[in-house]
Structures are given as structure tokens and as C-alpha cells.
Design brief:
The protein has a domain of 114 residues: Mlu1-box Binding Protein, DNA-binding Domain, CATH 3.10.260. Strands 1-2-4-3 form a four-stranded antiparallel beta sheet. It is extended, with a radius of gyration of 21 Å. It is α+β, with helices and mostly antiparallel strands. The longest helix is centred in the last third of the chain and has 37 residues. The protein is 54% helix and 9% strand.
């Protein structure tokens, strides 16, 4: 079987998927890069077809969410000219985009994005399956292994972002 060449590196798509409001989403800016169109044209196409994008397909970030996102991702040129918070597209919203952006590239990119969402779902399912198996083992064995099970549980917990120290030189003020 011939190896399939990818339109976009899998890692690029995977990095674009964020958790916002407890949903896996991709921001309009990242989608525009993947589709090789300007963000304003993607947003314009969506606004012309708003009836295809209900709230569970797409939503606009609040100003607070946008500022929080900026602080987590760091300020870069990608946010520079942005006046309004970005739109976030759920898996269903991304699928609907292919009908709005009728280009061949949009169709091919959507296929790759859908595969990324599927991989993510499978990863979460295997994580839940692992947690269930661990609980079964814990119930089966006595308290001698409690320390081991607790350590495994801590390893399975998602890492929390740590507050970063400011980078750079800070001169002390003279009195």
C-alpha cells in the first residue's frame, strides 16, 4: 500500500486544537492558515452563511477569554492587528466550513482536521479505559499497592501550566 502524503503535518493540526469552554475547538486564525486564506475572508464567508453555524458549531470568544488566550500563548505578530476576539469552531463547525469554502484545498484540509479530532477522541477514550483498568486492579489488590496506584493516578493527571517568570533584564531604580 502506498504511503499517503499529508497536506498538512499532523502536529500542526494537533497544536491548533484548543480546549475552550470545555470544548475542543480551532480558532479562525489557525483555520485560515490551514486553508491558506486570509482570516477576514474566512470570517466573511462564515458570516454570509450564519444559519449553517449554530452555537454548538461556532462561537466568538469573549474579550476576557481572548485576553486570557493571549497571555497563555504569548503575544506575537499573529495577534497584532486583531481588533475583535476570534471565532472558535468545534469539530462540527470545521466540517461545515468545507461547504462554505468550496475550494479543493478546504475539502482536503477538512479531511485532515477531522482525522485529528478522531485521534484526539481515541486518545481520550484510551485514557478513560486506562483509568477504569487501574481502578479494577486497585479493587483487586489490597492496600499494599495503594502508593503505586496513587503515583500512577498522579502521572495520568493533566499537567497544570505553571506561572512563568518574566524573561529579561530588569534594572533597579536608583533613589
Amino acid at each position: 500500500m502506498a504511503k499517503r502524503t499529508l497536506l498538512i503535518p499532523i502536529e500542526r493540526i494537533d497544536r491548533s486544537i484548543l480546549m475552550i469552554r470545555d470544548q475542543k475547538v480551532i480558532l479562525d486564525y489557525d483555520l485560515a492558515i490551514l486553508y491558506e486564506v486570509e482570516t477576514k475572508y474566512l470570517v466573511r464567508a462564515v458570516k454570509r452563511n450564519l444559519d449553517r453555524f449554530p452555537a454548538d458549531f461556532m462561537f466568538q470568544l469573549t474579550t476576557e477569554e481572548f485576553e486570557n488566550l493571549r497571555s497563555h500563548l504569548g503575544t506575537s505578530s499573529q495577534w497584532g492587528g486583531r481588533r475583535r476576539p476570534p471565532y472558535a469552531f468545534t469539530e462540527h463547525g470545521v466540517a461545515m466550513l468545507s461547504s462554505v469554502l468550496r475550494s479543493r484545498r478546504a475539502i482536503e484540509v477538512n479531511i485532515e482536521i477531522m482525522r485529528a479530532f478522531i485521534r484526539l477522541r481515541q486518545m481520550f477514550a484510551s485514557h478513560a479505559d486506562l483509568a477504569r483498568k487501574l481502578e479494577n486492579l486497585e479493587n483487586k489488590y489490597d492496600t499494599k499497592f495503594k502508593i503505586v496506584f496513587d503515583a500512577i493516578r498522579r502521572l495520568m493527571e493533566p499537567t497544570k501550566p505553571q506561572k512563568q517568570k518574566p524573561i529579561g533584564f530588569h534594572a533597579k531604580q536608583s533613589r
